[in-house]
Amino acid sequence: MSNEKSKQPADQELSKLKAELVKISKDVKGQMGLFMKHVESGKEVAIDADKIFPLGSVFKLAVMMEVFRQVDEGLLDMNEKLRLESRNYCIGSGILQYLTPGLELTIRDLVTLMIIATDNTASEMLWKRVGIQRVNMLIRDLGLARTSIYLPWREGFLLTMGKGPFKDMTAQEAARKWKGISDLERMKILNDIDTQYANLSIEDFRHEYENLYGMKEEKKFKIQREYDQVFDNLGTPREIGAMLEKILQGEGASSSSSKEMLAMLMRNPSGSTHPQFLSDDVMVAAKTGITAGTANSAGIIFIGPKSHIVLCIFFKNLIEKSPEKAQMAEARIARLIYDHFTRVKSA
User: DSSP characters for 183-217?
Assistant: First the structure.
């Protein structure tokens, strides 16, 4: 009985924290999902944490983990070089799309670019090298039943441009059709698009996309959002949090690989909104994902050597063109959680 009484104040504190987080989310016109876990104590806060969200570039966490697992298994060598070819080029974030075909980069170079510069072309090259199905097998190995990571972004962008079997459909019709077909049918469509547009130049790719959506994606936001909310990799805040916890605990790959993954995530200068309101000496290992209508941040906040917070904050169906309001809410939430666990004993 005395044990239960001693837990009550802490539970009340956590409930109060959750209410404050919900209040912050109401400032954003969209749907928020949040999962927070203090790793050492096991304390959690969950707000729609099991609902499915488009991941944006957060999917790159899984590609990174599969690369390191294959290195651990001896299937890959970090010094192996891959050649940049026309079929690899992807628009959006990253610098490789502006470089000359034929450039050779090591696996380590590509992982670094994918995580630190969130380079879409790098993720395309790595994913095709490790195998698309291997990444989804990793997800199942980790026990993540609701997360599905199978859509490389080159093919994803092409789908949002009306390529493939949905070219004569409206965005709403294409989205509805995509949701209604099996994974096997989706994989066939992706393979067909990969083959059909293998020789599409990056200049034509970029020009056609910008004609549709603008250089700064300032045109046709509602249509773009309709596509982006469906033609994306999907996951839940809780399950992506579980993936991050495995990296932190050295369980997602070998201990040395896990440490290297964490180091890369810490060096990502635009990796997260989490540290925006935290002091510079607070270490954060994180990855963001931004698309039309989506603003995600998934990371680990290092409160101390033996105190870590896994925090995944996902927003979808945002009505604003700019994700800034959602990102500001994410930063405020991270600060509130950090303050809570530096103020309240976590044990």
Answer: HHHHHHHHHHHHHHTTT--HHHHHHHHHHHH-TTS
Phi/psi at 173 (nearest 5 deg)?
A: -65, -45
Residue 134: its H or E element: helix 132-141
| CA pair distance 314, 152, nearest whole angstrom | 20
pLDDT of residue 2: 44
State the 10-residue block means of pLDDT for the chain, 347 residues long. Answer: 49 93 95 98 97 98 98 98 97 96 98 96 97 94 95 95 92 94 93 95 97 92 94 97 98 95 85 76 94 96 95 95 90 96 69
249 Cβ neighbours under 8 A, 6+ residues apart: 39, 258
pLDDT of residue 268: 72
Residue identified by tokens 């904050």 is: 313
Rounded Cα–Cα distance for residues 291 and 43 (Å): 31
Per-residue HEC secondary structure of 67-106 comes to HHHHHHCCCCCCCCEEECCHHHCCCCCCCHHHCCCCCEEE
List of residues 6+ apart from 107 with CB closer than 8 A: 67, 71, 76, 77, 78, 79, 80, 81, 82, 126, 129
**H helix and E strand count, the chain:** 13, 9
The answer to whether 294 and 283 are in contact (CB under 8 A) is no
**Rounded to an integer, what distance in angstroms lies between the CA atom of residue 240 and that of residue 64?**
13
